[in-house]
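Q: Study each token:
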Amino acid sequence: MGFTIGGSRGTKEFRSGTRRRGRTSECTAVAEYTGLWGWDVVPGARAAAPSRDCSCGDGRCAAPGAHPLPFARTVPAGATLDEVTDAWAGCPGAAILLPVGRAFDVIEVSEEAGRRALVRLERMGLPLGPVIVTADGRAQFFVAPGAAAELPQLLYRMGWDDADLDLRALGPGAFVTAPPSDRAGLGRTGWLRPPALDCAGGPPQARLLLGTLAYICHRLRR
């Protein structure tokens, strides 16, 4: 994987003032995700507060502002800024969704648990991937693919299978809303720990983080 947005061609495009016209901050962010971090991106629906009507147009939408747009095509890993701009032109203002289960799975806990766990994990010197914080108070830790399927067995092995934990895993078929997009009309998502070169080769195995996350979740339940 290269560490320029879309390779040398993408880098030159960023320097061109003419080509920048009409591009949005969403396009720039998507190009970073595809070109720098090697993630697929899917254009997603948005929901406007206070009614939170979904931009998909379905008045009975079950997940307003938190699902891919119908018929929107995936922007694949490696796409350049020009390719991203062309794709986003068909769905201006779309939310940036990252498909889970391809380059990463996600372990989600409360924001408070996530912040406390992150401090402890960093002090322990454990490998860490990106962590998203959502407007509704959740922290989403990126871990290696397969974590969602393995979670029950991992919790069992660690002795946390019977505990009432505010912890879940997201796997194939799920999507996370990536910064700087708004999620479900609740507000913008942000990075609790942004992507970095030290985790560009892939997020850590879930087992390395799960014990600490489970322990913090358990302490907060008491």
Q: What stands out?
A: The chain is about 30% helix and 15% strand. Confidence is low (pLDDT under 50) at residues 1-22.
